[in-house]
Design brief:
Blueprint: E1 3-4, E2 7-8, H1 20-32, H2 35-71, H3 78-126, H4 130-135, H5 138-180, H6 182-229, H7 231-236, H8 240-294, H9 298-340, E3 362-370, E4 375-384, E5 389-394, H10 400-407, E6 415-420, E7 423-424, H11 430-434, E8 437-440, E9 449-450, H12 451-455, H13 464-473, H14 477-482, E10 490-491, H15 500-512, E11 518-522, H16 530-543, E12 548-552, E13 564-569, E14 572-577, H17 579-585, H18 588-598
Parallel strand pairs: 5-12, 5-13, 8-11, 11-12
Antiparallel strand pairs: 1-2, 3-4, 3-6, 6-7, 9-10, 13-14
């Protein structure tokens, strides 16, 4: 399947590694917003690393003092020894406190950056077109919002401090080692190029592996979300075994991708540790020779050995965290793809108008539209006067819902025009255009919150009395009052603790509370029984008074009072008229109505 923007369909194909430098610079821009805190953390890091660099030389001085006293059979001044020990304890304590403060600051900065990344990602999603969510799995998007951003967070909070601290230790240790013995430093002339070359080769190999891991995890999350959502259907068709087998495939692909990335990542640590230990062995051999033939100080050898560990250790540590950084950069790429997605072609025209109210008069003029190359509406024209009721019927795929999608500009048309009160809808801002509509869809949506919060979602200024009045009209008030806390009862995600019919009634009541001039009913009574449907139909008739209404219905008995009925077939209007006119015509609508009535 083709890639859609920065996200992708679950094809399992893996892109080549992208520009790591660009991603890194992008992260630095986020860090730059908190440069004050970061500079403070850097100063603290410099101080505690400098303090750490003092202890080896102090230990060397102490060792030389004790050896000198023993060699000359002189008594050891324990005040001097105690002084060295106290100074080192003070240094260790200060280093601990400063390290804690530095890590605390970086963790705080990391939290702020991750919060900003999640905000920017969610803001980008909120601006996406409906088509974006049609072409991208929700599980993959959630994977970016959770796993990938968490990966970036972990790297920022742990690896940034370690990298900077390691850099200071490497530079400081190198300077002090040169000051002790440039001859011993020649050992690194042999081992350091090997370390650098090995690290570059491994990092080049690891980055695409971490990208692949993120993508495969997104595919697995997407499949998991899809299957969990449809668990009732899976069980009803006894497809548990088939679903599990398919899950095992995507799960194995994700596990293999994780193993491959982690396997190659695990090579870094032991390999660098081997080079580090080999370097230390060479230093010991050369140092021993210098002590024997050039009278080199044991204290200096001890200090140099410790500095060599402080020099090679951070290089080893940097190689270890390079795998984490590679993973974080791969994750950050996916996050930035999401943030940078073009929002639904939605940039409103510069001269687009904000409208507060409208009369609800709508005109479709030779509209041609297709989601892809397959044309759904071929040449659709329709004039709807204010306050009229338009019913749209036809078989599945005829183009009924498409009319609603383009009317609300979930998708933009290429040919023809759609006008509201004589204004081309492309010349109206999307936000103000959509405020003119109230919608009741077949697929109900409720969020986790109180009944009152769900009902007032579209109009937060409504009062408790307004809500109760709407619920009475929708015949749902009695049910709500039977709930444990009435209108304060918390509904589970998507209304999981109430029936489909009750959810539908709640969404109908919610639509009643909107102050809009146009009403859209998309199979609004499909999830209720016949008696409840009659009650709702009465409420709907009151709701539609004075409003331009578009009614998509399969139950033709619910649209007898429509001012105009459109029968669509393959994107064409094949019959139009009132219910009586179409019945008298005895055409396709008549046959469809009679077939439903006979059943």
């Amino acid at each position: 399947m083709a890639k859609v923007g920065g996200m992708r369909k679950p094809s399992g194909k893996v892109e080549h590694a992208k520009d790591k430098k660009k991603t890194l610079l992008r992260l630095f821009k986020y860090l730059g917003k908190y440069k004050g805190l970061i500079i403070f953390a850097i100063l603290i890091t410099i101080i505690y690393n400098v303090l750490n660099l003092l202890t080896p030389i102090m230990q060397g001085y102490l060792l030389d003092y004790i050896k000198e006293q023993l060699d000359t059979d002189s008594s050891i001044n324990y005040d001097i020894v105690l002084g060295y020990i106290i100074n080192m304890i003070i240094i260790f304590t200060l280093s601990f406190v400063l390290t804690y403060i530095g890590n605390l600051i970086i963790t705080r900065v990391s939290k702020k950056i991750v919060t900003t990344l999640r905000h920017d990602s969610f803001d980008s999603l909120s601006k996406m077109s409906v088509s974006y969510f049609d072409h991208n799995q929700i599980g993959d998007i959630i994977s970016v919002m959770s796993y990938d951003i968490d990966t970036v967070s972990t790297s920022l909070s742990n690896d940034v401090v370690t990298l900077f601290s390691s850099f200071i230790q490497i530079v400081g240790s190198l300077i002090l080692m040169i000051s002790i013995s440039w001859k011993l430093c020649l050992v690194f002339a042999f081992t350091l190029p090997i370390t650098i070359l090995f690290s570059r080769i491994m990092l080049k190999r690891l980055h695409p592996l971490f990208r692949k891991r993120s993508i495969k995890l997104g595919v697995m999350n997407g499949y998991s979300e899809e299957m969990i959502t449809g668990i009732k259907t899976i069980k009803s068709y006894s497809k548990e075994k088939y679903t599990l087998e398919k899950y095992m495939v995507v799960n194995k692909e994700a596990a293999d991708a994780m193993y491959e990335a982690d396997y190659h990542g695990c090579v870094m640590g032991p390999s660098m540790n081997f080079i580090n230990q080999f370097t230390l062995a060479l230093i010991c051999v050369v140092g021993a020779l210098l002590c024997i033939y050039e009278g080199f100080s044991y204290g200096y050898i001890s200090a140099f050995t410790q500095y060599s560990r402080k020099f090679a250790g951070p290089i080893n540590e940097m190689a270890n965290i390079a795998t984490d950084i590679g993973s974080a950069l791969a994750a950050a790429e996916r996050v930035f793809y999401l943030i940078d997605e073009n929002p639904e072609d939605i940039n409103d025209n510069k001269d687009a108008k904000e409208i507060d109210t409208s009369s609800g008069e709508i005109n479709f003029d030779h509209v041609k539209f297709g989601y892809t190359d397959n044309i759904v509406l071929k040449d659709f024209s329709l004039d709807v006067k204010s306050g009229k009721k338009v019913a749209i019927v036809g078989k599945t795929g005829a183009g009924k819902t498409t009319i609603i999608n383009i009317l609300m500009r979930f998708y933009d048309i290429k040919n023809g025009t759609i006008s509201l009160d004589g204004i081309n809808t492309k010349e109206i801002t999307r936000s103000s255009l959509r405020h003119q509509f109230a919608m009741v869809l077949q697929d109900t949506w409720l969020f986790e919150g109180s009944v009152f919060e769900n009902l007032s979602y579209g109009n937060p200024l409504v009062t408790q009395d307004d809500v109760i009045d709407a619920c009475k009209k929708a015949h749902i008030h009695s049910f709500i009052m039977q709930l444990p806390n009435g209108y304060s009862t918390i509904l589970k995600e998507n209304g999981g603790n109430i029936s489909k019919g009750q959810k539908q009634l709640l969404t109908i009541a919610r639509a009643m509370l909107l102050k809009s001039s146009i009403l859209i009913l998309d199979e609004a009574t499909s999830n209720v029984d016949t008696k409840t449907e009659m009650d709702i139909q009465d409420a709907m008739n009151k709701l539609m008074e004075g409003k331009t209404s578009f009614i998509i219905a399969h139950r033709l008995s619910t649209i007898k009072n429509a001012d105009i009925i459109l029968l669509l077939d393959n994107g064409d209007v094949i019959e139009t008229g009132t219910h009586k006119e179409l019945m008298d015509k005895k055409g396709r609508y008549y046959n469809l109505f009679i077939s439903q009535y006979d059943r």
